[in-house]
Write a structure and sequence with these properties.
With about 325 residues, chain A is α/β, with parallel strands linked by helices. Chain A is built from 13 helices and 12 strands. The longest helix of chain A is centred in the N-terminal third of the chain and has 15 residues. In chain B, strand 6, helix 9 and strand 7 form a beta-alpha-beta unit. Classes of the chains: A alpha/beta (about 325), B alpha/beta (about 280).
């Protein structure tokens, strides 16, 4: 695992979806057993490029996600490695029994890509805004669940997923958000990345909240508070060792996610802390609410997903230390 | 061997499957007798004559595939595979016992010879479609057979899968509809009717449809599959007009979905099934 942090809060010139597509173009070239199945959303994540370059390995299942999931599992049983994409809400809620049984329980290599996670669904609104997609997949025994944050990470983790023998779910931010990592960065599934070291509190974030966490660290530093920042791109299997080390060394944790806190990264971290190292924890994320329509910056403010919210949570967690 | 001899062998195999199916379920005392027994003749034709399989190499990649999408028919599959030599028959008598490899619903990770996991109705159909597409894209010249129930056709997923199979011209896919007219809560026509009929629906979805007047007749099933093999560019649906519980003395009259008969009823049913097998064997 070697990475280069950029972390200057600058908008990524490339769309995250292109991280997925670039990785898939290379994977499909190298390995003819890699296939991509889409649900009439090729136009949204540019997988039309896959269809054009590898028509024998790319399939459109139409607007029928449940069948698409079963088809992916059946193809996987014949020796293929199936990637399947829909919007996160449909890739999880709509096709969940199929993902659970046809793929997960059947122990087949099916890699589900859920685009437009959480508030990034923006103008598609509440019906298209999954705050519980990762929660569903985390309930599947041995499934891998990933919330990737930018182009470089999406590219690298897509390459890693192709090697996995069972069910996985990866969130895919469709557009460019902010650049966290330099191209060529490498990541290991199940291993968090410590982006900034610190001693007073640890911020554990993923996806679009990684950049907010880095901003929060800078704002806390200006107040004389030393914060550690961890990019926890893999929610399951969770890097317990890294969490426990952070809990022991900094004595307070803030989790930050673009997802319901009650059944996502925040709760997964809380499970570890409760069982093995009880320290104060504050959870930034969706607080038992449905989605709504609006621009992403408005939604991040509305659901308190901004650096300022993380700063306040960090101060609260520190104040709760014994 | 001429066709007449072949058909006689298949009738014997079907009667053996019926007897073993009853004995497998009797070992636990209760189970899905109805939808297992209606499928016995189709299973005999598939595993006795049609399918290219190797019981000693069950995951041989060029084999023909079978998916029991109506996964609750597990016992008829276990009887068939046991008789075919995939495993010693007595292992199937652990049906639903703690730690068994023979669960109610067919499971690819548990039972040797089971190609895909089913039980949540509708899912096996999509899995079979995926297997057909996967085999085709890898240049294999094999077939995928999938058995669905008439009640199972209530599931929307069946029709999502049907449109996909037709769109991708999966002529290596043959779907057998076990049209036994009964589902758990009663007659299919009363619980949830199928409009102009399941065959008409598949036809509308772009499939080649063959109606089999007696879906418990091995020769009619065999002929229909041979006809299906001639059709290119389309998947085929065989509508098997079957009798639920066929050959089980306690289940056939009512067409019950699942049964828990008394020991006396089990003994009577197994004796009747043994007699039926002997009578078929005596035929020339």
């Amino acid at each position: 695992m070697s990475y280069t942090l950029i972390g200057k809060h600058e908008k990524d010139s490339r769309a995250n979806r292109d991280g997925y597509v670039s990785a898939m173009l290379e994977l499909m070239e190298q390995d003819k057993s890699i296939v991509h199945i889409d649900c009439d959303l090729m136009g949204c994540i540019n997988t039309g490029k896959l269809l054009k370059a590898f028509p024998e390995q790319t399939f459109n299942a139409g607007i029928a996600e449940q069948n698409a999931m079963g088809v992916a599992a059946g193809m996987a049983a014949t020796g293929l490695k199936a990637f399947i994409h829909s919007f996160g809400c449909f890739a999880s809620r709509r096709a969940f029994d199929q993902a659970f049984l046809s793929a997960g329980y059947s122990q087949l290599p099916v890699h589900v890509i859920g685009s437009d996670p959480g508030v990034t669904a923006a103008f598609n609104g509440a019906t298209h805004m999954p705050f519980e997609d990762c929660a569903l997949y985390m309930t599947v025994p041995n499934a891998i669940v990933i919330d990737s944050c930018d182009y470089a990470q999406t590219y690298a983790l897509t390459k890693q997923l192709a090697k996995q023998p069972g069910l996985s779910y990866m969130r895919l931010i469709r557009k460019g958000f902010t650049t966290v990592y330099a191209d060529g960065s490498e990541f290991e599934i199940g291993k968090g990345v410590t982006l900034r070291d610190g001693t007073d509190v640890t911020i554990v974030a993923s996806g679009i909240l990684v950049d907010e966490a880095l901003k929060a660290e800078e704002q806390l530093a200006a107040k004389g508070i030393s914060a550690r920042v961890i990019d926890m791109h893999t929610w399951k299997p969770l890097d317990e060792e890294l969490i426990l080390k952070a809990a022991c060394e900094t004595g307070a944790i803030v989790t930050a996610e673009n997802h319901q806190v009650s059944c996502g990264l925040g709760s997964a971290v809380a499970n570890v802390l409760t069982e093995k190292c009880l320290v104060p924890q504050e959870r930034i994320g969706i607080q038992n609410q449905f989605g709504q329509v609006g621009p992403q910056d408005f939604l991040m403010e509305q659901y308190h997903l901004l650096a300022a919210d993380i700063v306040a949570a960090a101060e609260k967690a520190i104040a709760r230390k014994h | 061997m001429d066709k007449k001899q072949k058909m006689q062998q298949l009738r014997v195999f079907a009667a053996e499957i019926r007897l073993e199916t009853l004995k497998v379920i009797a070992s636990r005392g209760f189970g899905h007798v109805g939808g297992s027994m209606s499928m016995a003749d189709a299973m005999a034709v598939l595993y006795g004559e049609i399918m290219n399989v190797d019981p000693k190499n069950p995951r041989w990649e060029d084999r023909d595939w079978f998916v029991l999408s109506k996964g609750h028919g597990g016992p008829v599959m276990y009887a068939t595979l046991g008789l075919k030599g995939y495993y010693p028959m007595e292992r199937a008598y652990t049906l639903n016992q703690p730690g068994t490899d023979f669960p109610s619903h067919t499971d690819r990770m548990k039972t040797i010879g089971v190609d895909l996991t089913t039980g949540s109705l509708g899912q096996g159909m999509s899995e079979a479609v995926g297997a057909a597409l996967g085999n085709k894209t890898q240049g294999r010249n094999n077939h995928v057979f999938v058995a669905v129930g008439d009640g199972e056709c209530d599931e929307g997923q069946i029709w999502e899968a049907a449109q996909f199979a037709a769109h991708y011209k999966l002529d290596n896919l043959i779907c057998l509809v076990d049209d036994n007219k009964r589902q758990l809560d009663g007659a299919v026509a009363d619980v949830m009717g199928h409009g102009k009929g399941i065959g008409a629906k598949f036809d509308a979805f772009g499939w080649n449809v063959i109606n089999i007047e007696d879906g418990n007749d091995v020769e009619q099933i065999y002929d229909a599959i041979q006809a299906a093999y001639q059709v290119k560019g389309q998947p085929t649906c065989l509508i098997l007009n079957t009798t639920k519980g066929k050959g089980a003395t306690f289940a056939e009259p009512s067409g019950a979905h699942s049964s828990q008969p008394t020991q006396e009823q089990w003994d009577e049913a197994i004796a009747a099934s043994e007699a039926a097998l002997a009578a078929i064997r005596a035929q020339k």
